[in-house]
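Hey, can you fold this one?
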Amino acid sequence: MQQLQHVLDTADLLYSLDEIEQALNSLAESLSQHYADSNPLLLCVMNGSVVTTGNLLPKLNFPLELDYIHLTRYGDKLEGGELEWLHQPVTSLKDRAVILVEDIFDEGITINALREYCLEQGVASVKCLTLIDKLHNNKLAAQPEFIGLTVPNRYVFGFGMDYQGYWRNAPGIYAVKGR
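Sure. Predicted structure:
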């Protein structure tokens, strides 16, 4: 446990809770402009976006439904591996405007798989919202339509994103020192 505390204590704070709140307000405004009259289905991509989704929902002042989807390639590891489905939504996606709520857009492997799944289910449209866009040139997918904040190409955690399964509860977005 001391090592985990050391990770947080030495990490670089990239965004405070106030800065994240401002980004979420801006994302909520954009979603309201695009979806106020379309009864969208928000799919919270577990586990990382649970905090983002929970903080975003009260800012959306239009009818919507919420479900979750769980596809992982990290688990508690620091590097991605094979995609593993853990849960598919129980709400029908057919003919729906779907918004995938992600924590971070890194390479895009997960987002590609999620978009493909939604299209296979017959959605009317599928767009992605991500709180964080990691800046690097190794992207394998199209940019999400709604982006809150950007971070350098470092290992980040907090506000729902984890470090080896921990620190999803960190009060801000942090980068691991030296990574």
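The chain has four helices and nine strands. Let me know if you want another pass with a different chain boundary.
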